[in-house]
Design goal:
By secondary structure, this protein is an alpha/beta fold. It contains 7 helices and 7 strands; from the N terminus they run E-E-H-H-H-E-H-E-E-H-E-H-E-H. A 7-stranded mixed β-sheet has the order 1-3-2-4-7-5-6. Strand 5 (about 165-170), helix 5 (about 180-190) and strand 6 (about 195-200) form a beta-alpha-beta unit. Helix 5 (about 180-190) runs antiparallel to helix 7 (about 240-260). The chain is globular, with a radius of gyration of 18 Å. The N and C termini lie far apart (about 40 Å). The model has no long low-confidence stretch (mean pLDDT about 95).
């Protein structure tokens, strides 16, 4: 079986995670899916390419290898709604973001299969995230979790209009220190190429909300990128625009550098 995740341990107190960039499926799953489902339209395409600078900066990178259609790693194990009143995409989705069936009629997972996927895929991934954050916190006195995402810029079922290019989420300021959020906001405001919003439509999913505990030294941030910023087309086969991707990577690098250079007042220099 394909590894649940890929992990490169870093040397600095920032961990970058990609919960939705994988494309592997659970055994026997593909034959049960619709043609649209097999395209995996809600994948966070090319995240490793956009974040290539993270490894060169000494940041740890943890990437899920399976599709979010197997299990959504940015949802809680209890499948609680992140945005009450909005359509919920689910811990084990049955519909694409635009409302099309992922599975053929009668082939969607039952509660037993959902529970199995939660134990097989969800739990090991989050165990790894928690262990690495604790290691960083023990070593540095603090850690930053940077949760990297991308999404189609217009999805009427989920949000009105078009998204800003860069959507920074800190659970309305609760998941990271105020000074860090301010520094990132200033970095975003200083750029002239990309529109941005902080705690707009995307405030951070389960990962940001669960791990972000600044009072305990863990600061969590989600960056949701509109895919129009780096794809030639936001439809299958989702071709990348290399020129646009290079420009976007530079912007991402500058944001990661901001997080890397920041130090909370209570930080120590390591043990």
């Amino acid at each position: 079986m394909t590894d649940i995740f890929s992990f490169v341990r870093g040397t600095m107190p920032v961990l970058v995670t990609f919960p939705h960039s994988g494309s592997h499926l659970a055994p026997g799953m593909e034959r049960r899916m619709t043609e649209r489902g097999r395209q995996l339209p809600d994948t966070d395409w090319y995240m490793e390419h956009l974040y290539a600078g993270a490894l060169s900066k000494g940041l740890g990178v943890l990437k899920a290898n399976h599709s979010r259609y197997v299990v959504d790693l940015n949802r809680g194990a209890d499948d609680a709604a992140l945005y009450p009143g909005r359509p919920s995409t689910g811990l084990v989705p049955s519909l694409t973001f635009d409302g099309q069936p992922i599975y053929r009629a009668g082939q969607a997972p039952d509660e037993s299969e959902i529970a199995e996927r939660r134990e097989t895929y969800w739990r090991p991934y989050h165990d790894a995230v928690a262990q690495e954050l604790e290691r960083l916190r023990q070593k540095w006195g603090w850690a930053v979790l940077w949760d990297g995402h991308s999404i189609k810029s217009t999805i009427p079922r989920l949000f009105e209009g078009a998204l800003p290019d860069l959507n920074l989420g800190t659970n309305s300021g609760q998941s990271c220190g105020g000074e860090l959020q301010t520094l990132l906001e200033k970095r975003l405001a200083a750029n002239v190429r990309y529109s941005h919003v902080v705690n707009g439509r995307f405030k951070g999913g389960y990962t940001t909300r669960h791990y972000g505990q600044p009072e305990h030294g863990i600061h969590a941030i989600q960056l949701e990128i509109a895919q129009s910023t780096y794809l030639r087309s936001e439809e299958a086969p989702w071709p990348i625009d290399l020129e646009k991707a290079v420009r976007l990577s530079r912007m991402i690098d500058s944001l990661l550098e901001t997080a890397l250079c920041w130090r909370p007042e209570t930080a120590h220099s390591g043990k």
